[in-house]
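ESCALATION

Customer reports they have been waiting on this structure for their group meeting. Please prioritize. Original submission:
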Amino acid sequence: MAPPLLAFDRVSKTYRRGRHENVVLDGVSFELAAGELAAVFGRRAAGKSTLLRIAAGLDAPDAGSVALNGSPLFRAGRRPRLGGLPSGVGWLQRSGPFTASMSVVDYVAMPLLETTSSRHARARALEALDRMAATRWADARWQTMSDGERTLAALARATVTEPSLLLADDPVSGLDTREREVVLGLLRDLAVTRGTTVLITVAALPDTLRAHRIMSLSDGELMQAARSHERSPTTRPHHRGGTA
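Update from on-call: job pushed to the front of the queue and completed.
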C-alpha cells in the first residue's frame, strides 16, 4: 500500500515570548491521501498558518514528525528548509511580483525558469492560466487586477510546476461570494481531476463545504471530520514536481 502523501505524527509547536508560552500545535496527527482536499478551520492566530508552514518545511516542529510521500521532511536538528519548498510542493501566495512592470504570464512562469527555457516556461504558464480561466489577464499588471483576479493568477503560479501537494493559507480571504465559490471550486477540481493533494486553511466554516476532509484547530488540538463527497480516482496523474 502506498504511503499517505502527507503525514503528521504527534506534531507540536510552541512559541515563547519571555515567560509567556503559546502552544499552537499540541500532538497534531493526520494523514492526507493523493487527490484529497482538506480544509483546516479555526479562529485567527489558532495556528493554522504554522501548520501549513510546517507542512511546507518552512518551519520546524518542536516535537513529532512530518513525512512527504513517505520520506521525513525534517532531518536531525529539525531545522527549517533553507532552500525553499521541497520538490513537488506548491504554495499559493497572493502578494504578487516584486516588480510592478512584470506581466502576469511572466510572474506565473517564474518557478520554471531554473529548469527550462523562458519560451517553454511562458507556454506552460499560459496553460496554467488557462486551467484557471485566467488567460485574459496574461499580459496584465498586478496593480491593475482585482483581488479575485490576483488569486486566480496566484493559483496558476502555485500549480505551474504541477505539484503533488498544494498548500494555501486562507486563499479566499477578502473575496466576495462568487469569487470564493470560483476559487474553492478550482481547488476541488485540482484534487478530483488532477490528483493534487490540497491543504487549505479557512476562517469561515462555510468555506470548508467543498472539502473531502474538514479539520478544526483550536487550543493546539486538531479535530477531524470526514465528508462523503466524491473522491478522486485511485490512480494519480503524473506530476512533474518542483517548487513554486
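Sent to customer with the following note: The longest strand covers residues 20-32.
Escalation resolved.
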